Amino acid sequence: MTNTQPVAAGDFELWLQRILHSFQTGEAVDVPCGDCRGCCRAGRFVHLTPSDHSAHAAIAKPFLHAAPGMPKGYAVMGYRADGACPMLDDGNCSIYPRRPATCRGFDCRVLAAAGLQVGGKWNERINARVQAWRFSFPRAESQQRLDAIRRAAEFIERHPDAFPGGRAPREATTIAVLALKVHPVFLALNRSAAIAEIAEAIVAASRRFEANREPATALADSSA
To answer: Rounded to an integer, what distance in angstroms lies between the CA atom of residue 21 and that of residue 12?
Structure first.
């Protein structure tokens, strides 16, 4: 049974500052998950980088596989037949203090902010929590930022072919992350701007954001 009761997502402005800082530094954001384990049961491969020393040591070798197309040291961990992470034991992560950076950095509030949901047969729990999140808005400008994020996500989702080589993200979480990074474009957007012009502005904003990332996270994928 998924939880459909409203769940406090926190002060929107404060959360936005922290999540953007997390994108640039790799520092984890404290997510008030409560008893939700949706992301642990979502039937997704968990990526490990060479710097995930503790996770590599904690996860049994049969669960780890070389990451396709990536250098040595990068790995992926699969999932069970029911979509659950193999490290999930009695409803909780058995390696929580040593979990990979991918797990530390996941915050489904990005989906709530972007107004998106994830597809797939095991994502009911994530989507239920996404629908349940409720941000608080300290200022009118906070709502304007949320609107800008949602317009950015809608544009990326609707116009992937407007980007160079069609290289816009197609998956909900990556769309949401990019929308958060480039939302200032939509705060200053001329409503009469052409689709190609908006796409160019998004690409430029994404590149500026990535250029400011700290070296430890510089290898992470740029979405545009």
So the answer is: 14
Collect all residues with Cβ–Cβ distance below 8 Å to 49 and sequence separation of at least 6: 73, 74, 100, 101, 219
Neighbours of 152 (CB within 10 A): 27
37-73 core/surface letters (b: 16 or more CB in 10 A; e: else)? bbbbbbbbebbbbeebeebbebbeeebbeebeeeeee
CA distances from 1 to 24, 61, 81 (A): 36, 33, 19
Please report how the helices 12-25 and 140-158 are oriented relative to each other, as an axis angle in degrees rounded to 10. Answer: 50
- The token duo for 30 is 């404290």
Q: 3-class SS at 197?
A: helix
pLDDT tens, position by position, 171-212 = 999 999 999 999 999 999 887 899 999 999 999 999 999 998
The distance of Cα 45 from the centroid of its chain, to the nearest Å, equals: 14
**Contacts of residue 190, Cβ cutoff 8 Å, sequence gap at least 6:** none
pTM exceeding the 0.90 threshold for the entire prediction: no
- Compute the CA torsion angle 83, 86, 90, 96 (nearest 10 deg): -120
